[in-house]
Design a protein that fits this description.
With 193 residues, the chain is an alpha+beta fold. The chain contains 9 helices and 4 strands, in the order βαββαβααααααα.
Length: 193
């Protein structure tokens, strides 16, 4: 008998999209595992999960490129990555506080500890990881062609268009304007085929 307050958290590696969430939900349903929440990288199970159910769930998730996590450091890194992806790619509104404070608050750890652990495990600083995701989001927004660079810089909380442009060029080697120009040129060329 499952008590309503009993919840077990499972952490899932590589769970970074809505499709991944759908795969996890399907597997949980197939195994008759009741859940309260399925979010990027985390699943809240109502009640207990037997070692056999956990193993079967993990085996089935691996077939889709996902994996249950056990190691605490790996769980923290995965949670950081999922939080960054959610914050930058899936959130309509960025946190009112800076990224480091937001990540620290959400995960319940000191930011210095998190950034040190992240750099040690991933071989890239957390700041650079965030910057890479922001630039990917800028590329996406440029291609949508619905916002100008001023609006994009405001949306992604850059201090200015110049700051956005500098980070963009540092990561891609191109200016945002040139990136937009070559992408438009490629789509015109494809239309003429």
């Amino acid at each position: 008998m499952v008590t309503p307050d009993a919840k077990v958290k499972l952490f899932v590696k590589h769970m970074v999209s809505l499709r991944c969430k759908m795969v996890v939900k399907q597997e949980l349903k197939r195994l008759n595992i009741t859940y309260a929440v399925v979010d990027l990288g985390v699943v809240e199970i109502l009640g207990d999960i037997s070692p056999e159910q956990r193993e079967e769930l993990n085996t089935n998730l691996r077939k889709s490129g996902l994996e249950l996590l056990d190691d605490n450091n790996t769980i923290i890194i995965e949670r950081i990555q999922n939080l960054v992806v959610e914050m930058i790619h899936y959130s309509d509104e960025f946190p009112k506080i800076n990224y480091s404070d937001h990540i620290s608050q959400k995960l319940g750890y000191d930011y210095t500890y998190l950034s040190t652990l992240f750099a040690k495990v991933k071989g890239i600083t957390l700041q650079n990881y965030i910057m890479q995701h922001k630039v990917e989001r800028v590329k996406e927004l440029i291609l949508y062609d619905e916002l100008n660079l001023t609006e994009i810089s405001y949306l992604l909380q850059y201090s200015s268009v110049a700051h956005l442009s500098n980070q963009f060029k540092k990561i891609t080697g191109l200016t945002p304007s040139y990136f937009k120009k070559i992408k438009k040129g490629r789509s015109v060329n494809l239309e003429n085929l």
